[in-house]
Amino acid sequence: MISVKQDVSTNPTSARNAQWGGRFAAGPAAIMRDINASLGFDRRLWRHDIAGSRAHATMLAHVGILSELDHEAIQSGLDAIAAEIESGQFVFDPVLEDIHMAIESRLTTRIGEAGRRLHTARSRNDQVATDFRLWLRDAIDGLTTQTHALMRALTTRAAEHAATPMPGFTHLQTAQPITFGHHLLAYVEMLARDVGRLADGRARLNESPLGAAALAGTGFPIDRTATAAALGFARPMANSIDAVSARDFALEFLATAAIAAIHLSRLAEEIILWCSAPFSFVTLSDAFTTGSSIMPQKRNPDAAELIRAKTGRISGNLLALLTVMKGLPLAYAKDMQEDKEPVFDTADAWSLSLAAMEGMVHDMQPNLSRLREAASQGFSTATDLADWLVRTLHLAFRDAHHITGRIVARAEALNCPLEALPLAEMQAIHPDIDARVLSVLSLDASLASRASYGGTAPNQVAAQAAAWLARLAPDHAK
Ligand code: ARG
Questions:
Q1: pTM for the whole thing?
Q2: Closest to 37 (Cα-Cα) out of 93, 91, 119, 88
Q3: Is 266 helix (H, G, I), strand (E, B) or coil?
């Protein structure tokens, strides 16, 4: 049993938060301060908090609520604070609870009275919602760029390996030959949908809560359209209660991230399988593997394993915030302060996973002879034989399937691949089979035949890769 010594004493009045302390005779208990404080993590919002304050102050001056003198003092005070934070000189004092109070308090220390006027016609409720949307919008842009970079890496490798055979699996059993390039492009398609989901969420979150104030709007003659435009939002949110209560923008991001993490996890899992000795499909260099402290022969794909594992926290973060929001009455409640850590953690884990995956995709070397050998095993061209029986002998597919099954059984008994099975053996099962069949049983013939749109034929794959590379050219990617 671990016992944590907690200081439940009441702090001296000097520890009172001056921003809301007017009605309070004494400061909060230290434990209250600890549970209440978010500065430890929401300091990450500082740039966006300052941007929001700048837009608010400019608007207040414009409509005549702030004097031009006060406005100038506020802007230069915020400049100085930004420089302090940037250079690491800013003191983040937990007594000040959160980033909004920390910056406002510092502003007042620096510029005096004018700093105390900034919070007119605003509440921390609309302030935090604004900051968080701005932060997430930037995070979405960064993750979009990173996802594009990973797509580019995959597509480059796919173009190199448009004709490299590998076994295609269903149920992790050899199914039909495919190309390595085709397999990689499947992930490019998934990642493109992740980017689409990010863009959808970005468009929905890009509305400004600023000016909703605590929940009901304000009696001051503010201009919400002006602050929305200054911050790059498409419009002000139309309902002040919704503006401070909504966190579905964060949930949508977390859901998008959870799906994207699952895509990355599936690719990570495949890389782990591919570089295990029984597969030996690809090799990762020392740059993306670690050694074992006891087994000198080992090269462990730790980066891929960690990407696979990050899915746990990323999907957990979605459930965490869903649970926080469930049943919360409107409007703001302090529960909502718990929205930030899951989002920050998810954005960090996703970003790191994308970077590591991009590195691995560039790094991995497919083992061409092993891939070709594996692609020919497991009677992978059996479907081609059945299709030939349909096309050339005009058998019904079900009959062709049955005859092929018998031929495969015979080849298995003789321990020989389909393309090496003597013609006479096949004719013993169906007398009309002739030498023309041999041309469809080879790996390359099988690959080349799958030229339907979206199929694995090398020319299809090369065309798809070329189309993606053009779409992903840095100035094109969107
Ligand atoms: N730190 C708070 C949060 O993240 C800011 C909003 C506080 N609002 C309030 N009414 N206490 O949610």
A1: 0.92
A2: 93
A3: helix
